[in-house]
Structures are given as C-alpha cells and as structure tokens.
C-alpha cells in the first residue's frame, strides 16, 4: 500500500520536474539569442509566475515521499538536486526579466535604478545591470558629459589695490558693466562729455584711469559715437586732468566690464 502511494507521488514529482526542465530550456534560448522582445518577456513573465509556485508543490510531495521511503539518503540527494536546479533557473529567469524594467526606468528618467527598485524587481546583480543599461544609452552619455571649466586668470593690479571706489573706472554707452555710475549727456560732443565727467568727479572723486570702448563694434547710426570717442582732443583733455584715458582691444566689448 505504501509502495503504491510512493509511486503515485513520484509520478507527480516527475511532472513538476518536467515543467522545470521545459522552462530551463526556454530561458537558455532567450539568453543565447539577442535581446528578447516584449512579447517573449511577457510570455516568460507568465511562465515564471507559475514556476514560482512549483517549489511549494514539490516540497509537499517530496516531504511525503521522504516519510514513506526507507532510503532517506537518496531522497535527500534528490531534494538537493532539485533545489539547486530550481534556484539557478529562478536567478536566470529574473536576470532576463530584469532587462526590461531596467530599460523602462532608464529611458524616461535618464538614470539608473535605485536600491529600492532593485529590491522591488527582485533582480540579482541589479547594480551591474543598471550600469550596463546606462552605459549603452547614448542619451545618458550626453547627459553625463561635463562641460569644460576654464581656469580663471590672475586679477590685474588695478583690481587688487586698496583705494577709494571708482579710482579705476570704465566708460561705455549702454555697454555691459558690473558696476556703473550713470550720467546723462545732452550731445555727442567733447563739451558734454567733459561736463558729465566733472559731475562724476564731484560725486565720486577723480579717477586714475578711464577705459572706453574703441568704437569698432559700432555700425550704422552709431558711427558718429565711434568717431566722437576716437577724437584726439578728448584724450588730451583727460591728460590735462591727470586721468589716463584708455581703449579696450578691438572686438572685445566684454572688456568694458573688467579691467585689463
């Protein structure tokens, strides 16, 4: 009676082992080829859900066989062999299934998976999978690119002197500056410019140098302003006042915000 029951249990156990063998062959086919398609992954996911419940069925049958069988050593080896095959196949199947979630997370978010997401996916070797997925993504490569940070040059001497404000100053008509003193002039003439300078000196003190736009970036209607700035009499009047009147280099309007 006991022998007949053991034979029935062994047949049921064999059917479970055959299902494991079939899934093992299917996973090897997916691993040997290229990246599995979404349809193949969906099919594997359905099979894996059924496979996940096989161990409980096997454990119940094997426990009954071990109780009824006289050869406990053989049954113990049988259990160890099945468990080794089962867990190895589970790890391989999860590795194949983990490739799809990694791509799904990486593409919209442009990042790798977090540790919490590894746990939720039950992914073995999830860190390596995330690195491989991100490294193969061209969009991620572009986002990780670092811009070149230019090295700042040494500050000029005029920027480090402990003197009163506006000792070294720049002048520009609607140019780019970091700090400015605004004076309104009535005309593009030397007299109007000197009047504006006198108002500036009475408010801020007499500067040591004034740096002006050289006029090379003016076009069209602004040519008149360029000609005015380049008048030799303007520089001479500045020299009489003890002020050095300088021009920025050609095609460098950004210099008017920095001393050089």
UniProtKB/TrEMBL annotation:
Keywords: Coiled coil. InterPro entries: RNaseH-like_sf, RNaseH_sf. Residues 51-78 form a coiled coil. The keyword Magnesium does not apply. One of its GO terms (molecular function) is nucleic acid binding. SUPFAM superfamilies: Ribonuclease H-like (SSF53098). PANTHER family: GAG-LIKE PROTEIN (PTHR47331:SF1), PHD-TYPE DOMAIN-CONTAINING PROTEIN (PTHR47331). This is Integrase catalytic domain-containing protein. It comes from Parnassius mnemosyne (clouded apollo).
